[in-house]
Amino acid sequence: MDRLFKILFFGLIIKPIVFVVLGLNLRGHDKLPKKGPAVIVANHNSHLDTIVLMSLYPLSMIHRVRPVAAVDYFLGQGGLLAWLALKCIDIVPMDRSGITEREALFSECHKALDNGDILILFPEGSRGKPEQMSKLKNGVFFLLNERNDTKVTPVMLQGLGRSLPKGEALLVPFNCDVIIGESITVTKQASTFIEQLNRAFSTLSKQCITHFYQDVDEGQ
């Protein structure tokens, strides 16, 4: 039943919003992982980030794509938000209180990856200011450094933070970039892996049309 909820939610509501209301400049769609275990890592400025990334997959695969999301924000108050998070988005809940041991912290992620799911992770940790990237955290490395079976695919998002900024509830149509890069390998050291991710995001950001327009505006 939950799978049906998810298909109907994305087929009838989310995909029309993403592909009709938003103007997407999508590049590298063929580089998205087609099966799990796999991890997509993206920069994070808006709630739209998650649903846009999930909408890139066909409805026949949408049940395999699951974002990792904070328990306190999405499930802490219960109600409609918790119902949507569990039934329609099918999040992998993560406790970010800091009191959970690392092994337990990632246990649900490992279960999902072992099940062949494709996880969406935001290595900045939480939503930042529109079009500004925060410092990347080591969480993705700690999740994957002992997994040799899991690909990491970087995705650069631009413009979604303007369409639905943090703290806003009204969607504003705006041109948005979704640039997907080649998968990368998790290295043995966290610092090397984070440097690799930073370079990937920097390279992908240069392909963003909205970034180009922003530079033009700033130069005038």
How would you describe this protein?
Helix content is about 40%, strand content about 15%. The protein contains ten helices and seven strands. It has helices at about 1-20, 50-55, 70-75, 80-90, 100-105, 105-115, 140-145, 160-165, 190-205, 210-220; strands at about 25, 40, 65-70, 90-95, 120, 150-160, 175-180. α1 crosses α4 (about 80-90). The longest helix is centred in the first third of the chain and has 20 residues, at about 1-20.
Spatial strand sequence of the major β-sheet: 1-7-6-2-5-3-4
Structural class: alpha/beta
Number of helices: 10
**Residue share in β-strands:** 15-25%
Secondary-structure element string:
HEEHEHHEHHEHEHEHH
Instruction: From the alpha carbons, calculate the radius of gyration and give it in angstroms.
Output: 17 Å
**Low-pLDDT segments, ≥5 res:** 212-220
- Please identify the oligomeric state: single chain
Total number of β-strand segments? 7
Q: Give the biggest beta sheet.
A: 7 strands, mixed
Give the % helix. 40-55%
Gap between N and C termini, in Å?
54 Å
Shape: globular
Query: pLDDT average, as an integer?
Result: 87
